Amino acid sequence: MNARQEECSGVLDRGEPEDLLSMRDGERFAIPGVRGRMEKLAFGTGLFLHLAELEVEQDAFFAVENYMAPGWIGGSWNILGELQVQPPGMAPLSCGESDALIMRVDTTGTRYLLPAGQLIRHIGVTCTLESLHQRFNGNLPAALAPFVRNDDDVVDMRVTEVTPRMRSVGAAMFARQLHGAGRRFQLEGLAILFLYEIIDSFCEGLDDDSEDLPDWEQVALERIMVRIQQDPGAPLVARQLADEMGMAETRLNSLFKARTGKRCAEFIRAERMALARRLIEEGELALKQVALRAGFNHVSNFSRAYKSWYGENPGRAQRRS
User: Fold this and answer.
1) Secondary structure class of 238 (helix, strand, coil)
2) Are both 54 and 181 inside the same structural domain?
3) 249 and 185 in a common domain
């Protein structure tokens, strides 16, 4: 059991779920304590996309029936919000803004907990193994072996890093520009990219060999991370931070990538966006003040960055808070 599994263990130990949802085309689902929309798109190519935008007013606890026959792989991620998911026979895992999931669950009865008081914007993509083999031209990455066995009772789900590319693709799925006759066409392309990014992130994570850092590099990395986390809105530039610590920018990025899965600039952006979201949810500052606190001199630049990160403009988020 990994650290995240231990952290969540027992969260879903609540007896029987309140609802059993059957995910089929054209159905709408009522989840007590939750308002919003859920959408499932089947593209006819062995590829399926699920999008959900849910306002969780009270803890929601439910199980889901499989709609796919055994033999598939999937990936899911919350661009906003947190939930816990527990496949049959496994410890619970978290799916949130910094952790995506790669999975194959042939057995029905996966259980979900949606904690109250949040907006969840969720993406899930599934693909049949036949379609997956075709898309990789039969040359599947060796790291996918646990998910592509010929058995019909595979239950495997693992956490993987959220990459900047994954975040960009996910945010695009919720863009208001996606509408009209071309929406399905665009979403199919984005779904393929999203699942590829999940797979690529998982495979890269397994290939990553941690190196033993010299003491001075460990200390330098910790100092920079603390400095960023304490004041992400400060004028922080990766090259300057590297110079201050006496190392090359490429080395600093390698250290950040090994520790956080992000380069230094990406880590700074993630901390700034998290700060901006907290400030908007608190509702005490105007957008211009939020932008300045998050390190942006112009509201227009801040709005573009926020929308690219969370899939909505900050004004909409502020009105909802």
Assistant:
1) helix
2) yes
3) no
Please check whether residues 201 and 101 belong to one and the same domain.
yes
Pairing assessment for the beta strands 155-161 and 83-86 based on DSSP bridges: unpaired
- Number of compact structural domains in the chain: 2
Q: What is the pTM assigned to this prediction?
A: 0.76
Domain that holds residue 256: 215-320
Strand (E) or helix (H) holding 24? none
Q: Which of 271, 287, 275 is nearest to 236 (CA)?
A: 271
One digit per residue, the tens of pLDDT, for the chain of length 321 reads: 333 333 333 334 444 444 434 444 445 566 778 888 888 899 989 999 999 988 898 998 888 888 889 999 999 999 999 999 999 988 889 898 888 999 999 988 899 999 998 999 999 999 999 999 999 998 999 999 999 999 999 999 999 989 888 999 999 998 877 778 888 999 999 999 999 999 999 998 765 555 677 888 888 999 999 999 999 999 999 999 999 888 899 999 888 888 887 889 989 998 999 999 999 989 899 999 999 999 999 999 999 899 888 888 899 888 876
Residues 178 and 314 reside in one and the same domain: no
